[in-house]
Design brief:
Elements lengths: L1 H9 L1 H8 L1 E8 L2 E6 L6 H5 L12 H4 L16 E3 L9 E6 L23 E5 L4 H10 L4 E2 L7 H5 L4 E4 L6 E7 L9 H10 L2 H8 L6 E2 L18 H5 L3 H11 L6 E6 L7 H13 L3 E6 L1 H7 L13 E7 L28 H12 L3 H18 L3 E6 L3 E4 L2 E2 L14 E2 L2
Helix pairs in contact: 1-2, 7-10, 8-11, 13-14
């Protein structure tokens, strides 16, 4: 109960589920009873979600950690145990096989099914320099590389001892998010000017380069899925919006307030977006303060609601795995809750929240598709965030590993076997 309640405060799907929940009670030592105020069709999809934020079950003492505080204790609750004694933050995390864990009988599938561990130990190493990691993979010092940089893929593919494969078939959506609390992005016309100035192809060419691994896509809910539509995305996917961007910015009354953009340099899939966007915004007439930082600083600073002049921010960029944005309830970035549980940037939009409720109540795929299109139209009209396209990231591993599973988010290490 405590775990579900904590998750229900922090996660978009959890928040919406709790809106429809009358009570959560422990009927007995092994039973949780969740009672709804009205029928809600996304209960299982919510508590079974495979990625951010996962409703992990944890001891009550941990689940009751205040929402804004980090949980300081890590434990193993499944096929692996976390080895606290060997943990070096930013360097290494170690997981050992949980010999007391009893897996389900059915075959593994994504994050469901039987989680059978076939290795005694997994060492997760942080190597910020991708060339160093690639060299270690080729020499056999490491077995698996989660996200090789795109320019290194041809080199790795030429090595007969390595396998290259896309494990997350839904890929990633990359996006830009503005801060709605402070000028200039509290002004709708300024946000619209920024939207018109940016186009996806420039960003994706810099981020990925190889069109084999990226897709220009104006759909908020992922191209190639039932809810995909290009509505509202014209200049974003076709380009040619700069003249209109300049016109909108002039009409907005923009006074030259610098746009503080956080630019992390230590994550290969987040380096290009702020640099490209900054240049396009400057071309449209914005003054831009591009502040170099690392990703951990972005994660900490984006939670701040202070004005930009006091350590706050105006814009940052991030990526979501496709599984996290495939529908309006899962997509955390498209909410309109403002300061009341909203995502960083704190967009307030009652219309979007009402439409999300209607989506959650509907049991008709056709009706859900129609509602999702209405949400997308409102999100583009109000520039809730700027979707910057989709991309796929292949993983690479030595052929001595077998049983590597595909999945919707992070690598999965059960089912993997390593031959000597």
């Amino acid at each position: 109960m405590a775990s579900l309640k904590r998750w229900g405060r922090n996660d978009n799907m959890g928040q919406k589920l709790m809106d429809f929940t009358a009570s959560i009670e422990a009927t007995d030592a092994k039973t949780i009873t969740l009672k709804l105020k009205e029928p809600y069709g996304l209960v299982l999809e919510s508590i079974g979600k495979p990625s951010s934020y996962v409703p992990f079950m944890m001891p009550k003492r941990m689940a009751e950690t205040p929402a804004g505080q980090q949980i300081k204790e890590q434990i193993g609750s499944g096929p692996f145990k976390f080895v606290q004694a060997e943990f070096q933050p930013g360097v290494k995390a170690v997981y050992e096989k949980n010999t007391d864990y009893v897996p389900r009988k059915e075959p593994a599938s994504w994050t469901s099914g039987g989680k059978v561990v076939k290795v005694d130990r997994v060492e997760w190493l942080t190597m910020p320099d991708t060339q160093t990691a690639a060299n270690a993979l080729q020499s056999g010092d490491i077995d698996f590389m989660e996200q090789p940089s795109f320019d290194l893929l041809p080199v790795l593919a030429a090595n007969k001892d390595l396998k290259i494969e896309i494990l997350n078939k839904l890929g990633f959506q990359t996006l830009g998010r503005m801060n709605f609390l402070y000028p200039p992005f509290d002004n709708l016309k300024v946000r619209q000017a920024a939207l018109k100035a940016i186009n996806q192809k420039d960003v994706l060419d810099a981020l990925v380069g190889n069109p084999e691994y990226y897709k220009v896509c104006g759909a908020f809910f992922v191209c190639g899925t039932p809810l995909a539509t290009e509505q509202g995305s014209d200049t974003l996917i076709k380009g040619g919006g700069m003249a209109e961007a300049k016109k909108l910015l002039a009409e907005s009354g923009y006074d030259g307030t610098p746009i503080v953009i956080m630019a992390p340099g230590d994550v290969v899939t987040l380096k290009a977006q702020p640099i490209v966007a900054a240049q396009l915004l400057r071309e449209a007439g914005f003054k831009v303060d591009l502040q170099a930082t690392d990703w951990q600083t972005v994660v900490t600073r984006r939670a701040s609601q202070k004005p930009p002049k006091e350590g706050g921010w105006n814009m940052f960029f991030t990526n979501w795995v496709g599984a996290d944005v495939v529908n309006p309830i899962a997509n955390f970035s498209i909410g309109g809750r403002g300061k009341n549980g909203g995502w960083f940037g704190w967009a307030e939009n009652p219309k979007i929240e009402q439409l999300k409720d209607a989506f959650a109540r509907s049991s008709s795929p056709d009706e859900q598709k129609k509602i999702a299109a209405e949400i997308q139209k409102e999100a583009y009209d109000q520039v809730i965030y700027i979707p910057l396209g989709q991309y796929l990231t292949p993983s690479a591993w030595r052929k001595s590993l077998t049983g590597v599973l595909d999945g919707p988010a992070t690598p999965i290490f059960w089912n993997i076997d390593k031959s000597e």
